[in-house]
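Weekly sync, protein design subgroup
Attendees: M.S., D.O., the rotation student, P.L. (late)

Item 1: inverse folding check
M.S. brought a backbone from last month's batch and wanted to see whether the design step gives back something sensible before we order anything. D.O. pointed out we never logged the input encoding, so this time it goes straight into the notes. Structure tokens as presented (445 positions):
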């Protein structure tokens, strides 16, 4: 007590704040552990696992209901930012400007290895136009016809990586954008990491590529590297925004009202959301599922976990076509559950970067080896490893995630675990993508 009396007023206020904050963090940790234990004790059947992984909110803050998760405090957050600031000098000197060893024993600059390609605007625009004409006429026969050696439009899936977890995906002429991020600087022109490779497309380019028909924007969470609010304002209400709970208000401040919030395990029929309602006539039934991920949210320290985070699965007629993971740590039971309920899944968009230092990152991000495990669990033969090479956000070398995933693919004898090139449009025939041997079809149809 004598020690406290000798402290200055500012020191007393600071000590009081630290004690209050530490007490709050301890309280939240104990409440979360109790919630996890209570849910675990209630599991009787396999299907009860889905109930175990329902979203959880304590005192208006979302929490992770996963035993594998370790929450980070503000102290850890600030410590890691200091470490990253120090490492940025090393990264800028060694990893960006110096030569990098390649697989054939030669050396190249990182900038040469992170190449940018021109997207296939013509094919995207053509498919989008065909779908809109079919919607207008009510006749979808042309969607099922092959032309010039390409699969029918209905069976075409086009994928273009724009950086981080931002991807433009076209399925049967429908256009979907994930986690939009186009800015050259993560936070501002004066603060935050600078983009290593410029985005291959701008928002205006996307409008041109889709013929002005961007149908859906899927946002996994509100971190600045997954949601560019300037780009969001530019997209506006052109598309239907599908986001986790709590993000509608953020987008509303940018004048975006065409927003649907989803909770974990919810299913959203989206035909009525497509092309101003014209999608209601589509012969195929599209739906988006929101599934859990092990991560956190917040654009600033003070708004941490006030909104939910999650992943999305796009389905057509009960068949899972696309799994946009966003960000997640690894939880075996969770991915087993997703695989049993919604697998097999045609294509996985998996984050493979930002996993070092592991003591800090592993509760929130998966590594390349864990991405391969996820693919096996959810029943997919095709991976696109993304969420790397765009900004320097963690300790692993910039190209390490790519090299590790490709090495794993080689060891497994598959060329379907890919790391996409920036801007290059990949074309798939959905009818020819098969489930892994021995993987049974999903039970929820």
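Designed sequence read out in the meeting:
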């Amino acid at each position: 007590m004598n020690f406290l009396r000798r402290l200055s007023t500012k020191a007393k206020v600071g000590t009081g704040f630290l004690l209050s904050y530490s007490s709050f963090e301890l309280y939240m940790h104990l409440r979360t552990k109790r919630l996890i234990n209570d849910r675990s004790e209630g599991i009787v059947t396999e299907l009860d696992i889905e109930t175990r992984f329902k979203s959880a909110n304590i005192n208006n803050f979302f929490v992770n209901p996963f035993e594998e998760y370790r929450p980070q405090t503000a102290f850890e957050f600030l410590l890691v930012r200091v470490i990253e600031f120090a490492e940025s000098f090393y990264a800028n000197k060694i990893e960006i400007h110096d030569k990098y060893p390649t697989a054939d024993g030669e050396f190249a600059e990182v900038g040469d290895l992170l190449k940018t390609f021109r997207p296939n605007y013509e094919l995207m625009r053509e498919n989008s136009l065909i779908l809109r004409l079919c919607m207008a006429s009510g006749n979808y026969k042309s969607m099922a016809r092959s032309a010039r050696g390409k699969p029918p439009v209905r069976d075409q899936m086009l994928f273009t990586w724009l950086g981080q977890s931002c991807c433009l995906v076209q399925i049967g002429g429908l256009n979907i954008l994930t986690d939009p991020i186009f800015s050259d600087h993560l936070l501002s022109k004066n603060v935050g990491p600078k983009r290593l490779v410029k985005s291959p497309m701008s928002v205006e380019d996307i409008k041109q590529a889709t013929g002005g028909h961007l149908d859906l924007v899927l946002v996994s969470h509100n971190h600045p590297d997954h949601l560019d609010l300037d780009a969001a304002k530019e997209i506006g209400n052109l598309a239907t925004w599908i986001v986790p709970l709590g993000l509608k208000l953020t987008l509303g401040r940018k004048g975006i009202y065409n927003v649907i919030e989803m909770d974990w395990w919810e299913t959203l029929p989206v035909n009525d959301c497509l092309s101003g309602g014209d999608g209601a006539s589509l012969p195929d039934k599209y739906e988006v599922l929101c599934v859990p991920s092990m991560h956190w949210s917040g654009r600033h320290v003070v708004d941490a976990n006030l909104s939910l985070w999650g992943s999305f699965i796009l389905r057509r007629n009960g068949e899972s076509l696309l799994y946009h993971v966003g960000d997640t740590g690894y939880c075996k039971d969770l991915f087993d559950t997703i695989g049993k309920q919604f697998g097999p899944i045609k294509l996985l968009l998996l984050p493979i970067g930002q996993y070092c230092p592991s003591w800090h990152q592993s509760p929130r991000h998966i590594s390349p080896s864990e991405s391969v495990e996820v693919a096996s669990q959810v029943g997919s033969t095709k991976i696109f490893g993304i969420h790397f090479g765009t900004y320097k956000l963690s300790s692993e070398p910039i190209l390490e995630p790519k090299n590790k995933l490709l090495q794993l693919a080689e060891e497994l004898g598959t060329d379907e675990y890919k790391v996409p090139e920036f801007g290059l449009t990949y074309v798939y025939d959905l009818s020819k993508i098969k489930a892994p041997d021995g993987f049974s079809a999903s039970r929820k149809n």
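Discussion: The radius of gyration is 23 Å. The chain has two domains: 9-63, 113-432.
Action: P.L. to compare against the previous round before Friday.
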